[in-house]
Specification:
The complex is a heterodimer of chains A (454) and B (122). With 454 residues, chain A is of the alpha+beta class. In chain A, 27% of the residues lie in helices and 26% in strands. Chain A folds into 2 domains: 273 residues, no CATH class; 120 residues, Alpha-Beta Plaits. The chains are: A alpha+beta (454), B alpha+beta (122).
Chain lengths: 454, 122
């Protein structure tokens, strides 16, 4: 029997009305299934912990109630389990908020489960841990650590659903586990049935970024046109007991599901396609077969699995440097030359002040992102543009030093080249993250049912 | 042998970039089966490394996926610190796939045409 899983959100900050057509379609198809919300990024997780520190009732996704209000009642009434990592840094507070929301919607006594165990900050010592490949080491003592969260797997999501949960709130779980959990709960797959766990993980990987498999992050006019992108429909996976599945989207929505969108998302954020590591399984995508089986319907099969890794990935967040940005526009005849002179003036001033801030200049309108940090000034020939915006970006551990550098752009109004305008400056503190491998024994995964506000 | 043309990779392939820390991955996917051997031949680790040299890329690893006629490039250190510390506006490297797709490739003229008409049913 086919089991449907819809995606209601692909990142923190995604459209809050995206789930509505997904739920409508799932109800039209008979109800049941699961709706997942993926809302955690590495930085949003650390920001969640900062929010929780300042108020113990905060730290979950700030858009939680906007995401759930339009669909929660329909999901509960149509037996669609809601699974979200929108608990972020404070899943219990998120459960409190969902319970209140349910009350406001006239849904009494719904079963809300909280999955925990990912937060491993207490007593954590980085010195004995191996860094995750490709990451640079954090220079941080225990008191500098804002957040430390292990990526936990699907097991307690599945058990919570098997125990009657109608809503499952998690913090940091591996994104595909949000999908694998309901599938294991429904089909009763064994936790050592590696090929099926791999298939469910692949379905999760394809759903976890929401519309990125249905035409979002894809359109390239004249090459890859996408109908009605402004109303792009979020994906639904129709999964069979053997783990094969079809990716589709709600009728009447924009976007497209075809071999191209599915291929792009299969490889999104993938390193070795033969070894995609999650807490649940190692997924091998190299034998995956895809086929267009109807309009906006792509069948996916052939995922292979190997036993799950011994250790879990954990992401540590610490406070980072200050990032300062200042911009000024020059337009019309000789705009690029005036913008470059502005950069030269600023750089000369900073050198004379022996400023130590790390810095970079961009000439937006000629080159905004493809250049290297040292490529733009002053050597490289840039394309002329009628309208150029000079951007200075600086990084410093000392806020005052960053501010001092930004003021040099502010001063260009009167002291810089002719016709400069539209100055904006911005200064923000950054969060640094790095990932490490931790033994599973450090992580006590569990689920509990919400029983009233603490 | 038909006439050969030098075109941007973008004419015969599409792709997507993603990041994990300071490591970037970019997929390069053939629009048509005829383009696949050209991708395998032309879009090499060395050429990709050269394209990202100005971004201080240190290493490129290419994975070949025959099953979906796609290449996956994993590029180290091209993000100049990535979201933690890059000064580039695009800290994630979201735009970088289109830098790779601007690589010149030499292809039979017959291969270059409108992509949209070829994918109605994949």
């Amino acid at each position: 029997m086919t089991y449907r899983i819809g995606s209601g959100s692909g990142f923190s900050g995604d459209r809050v009305d995206a789930a509505i057509p997904v739920v409508r379609q799932m109800i039209a198809d008979g109800g049941g299934g699961a709706l997942i919300f993926e809302t955690i990024g590495e930085r949003t997780l650390a920001l969640g912990h900062l929010a929780r520190r300042s108020n113990p009732r905060h730290g979950y996704d700030p858009l939680l109630s906007e995401l759930l209000t339009p669909v929660l009642a329909d999901c509960i009434r149509s037996r669609i389990v809601v699974v979200g990592n929108f608990g972020v840094a404070n899943p219990r507070a998120a459960a409190d908020r969902i319970a209140r929301l349910a009350g406001e919607l006239g849904l009494d006594g719904i079963q809300i489960a909280v999955v925990e165990g990912d937060d491993i900050r207490e007593g954590l010592d980085l010195s004995g841990l191996e860094r995750w490949e490709g990451d640079t080491e954090l220079r941080a003592g225990p008191s500098d650590i804002i957040s430390a969260n292990a990526y936990i797997g699907a097991r307690h999501i599945a058990e919570a659903i098997q125990n009657g949960a109608q809503v499952v709130v998690t913090g940091r779980v591996a994104d595909p586990s949000l999908v694998l959990g309901p599938l294991v709960a429904h089909f009763g797959w064994d936790w050592t049935d590696w090929d099926r766990l791999a298939a469910g993980t692949l379905a999760g990987h394809l759903l976890e970024c929401g519309s990125q498999v249905t035409g979002g992050y894809f359109a390239d006019p004249g090459f890859k046109d996408v109908a009605d992108l402004a109303d792009v429909g979020f994906p639904i996976a129709e999964v069979e007991a053997d783990g094969s599945f079809t990716i589709t989207k709600p009728h009447g929505t924009g976007g497209v599901v075809d071999l191209r969108t599915v291929k792009e998302q299969i490889l999104y954020e993938i390193h070795d396609p033969a070894a995609y590591l999650t807490p649940d399984v190692i997924l091998d995508m190299t034998q995956v077969a895809i086929a267009q089986v109807g309009k906006d319907r792509v069948a996916v099969s052939g995922a292979r699995g190997r036993p799950a890794p011994d250790r879990l990935k954990a992401t540590i967040g610490v406070s980072g440097d200050w990032l300062g940005e200042a911009e000024i526009s020059y337009a019309g005849p000789n705009a690029l030359a005036r913008a470059r002179l502005a950069a030269d003036v600023v750089e000369t001033r900073l050198r004379s002040q022996t400023s130590r801030v790390r810095r970079r200049y961009d000439f937006i309108g000629a080159l905004s992102v493809f250049g290297g940090d040292d490529a733009s000034p002053p050597g490289q020939v840039l394309p002329e543009g009628p309208d150029i915006r000079m951007r200075l970006a600086v990084s410093a551990s000392d806020k005052a030093e960053a501010e001092l550098a930004l003021r040099e752009v502010g001063a260009l109004y009167c002291t810089g080249p002719a016709g400069g305008g539209g100055i904006r400056t911005r200064l923000q503190s950054r969060i640094n993250t790095a990932s490490y491998l931790v033994p599973r024994s450090m992580v006590e995964e569990r689920h509990t049912f919400w029983e009233g506000e603490a | 042998m038909s006439e050969m043309l030098t075109v941007p990779l973008h004419d015969i392939a599409h792709g997507r970039s993603g990041d994990k820390g300071n490591r970037l991955n970019i997929s390069v996917i053939a629009y048509r089966p005829e383009a696949w051997p050209i991708l395998v031949r032309e879009v090499t680790e060395a050429r990709v490394l050269a394209m990202f040299a100005h971004r201080s890329a240190s290493k490129v690893k290419r994975y070949v996926l025959e099953n979906i006629q796609a290449l996956n490039f994993v590029i180290d250190d091209a993000l100049e610190g990535g979201v933690n510390s890059a000064l580039n506006l695009d800290t994630h490297g979201k735009t970088t796939a289109f830098h790779l797709l601007s690589m010149d490739v030499t292809v039979p003229a017959a291969l270059v045409g409108n992509r949209n008409s070829e994918n109605a049913t994949g």
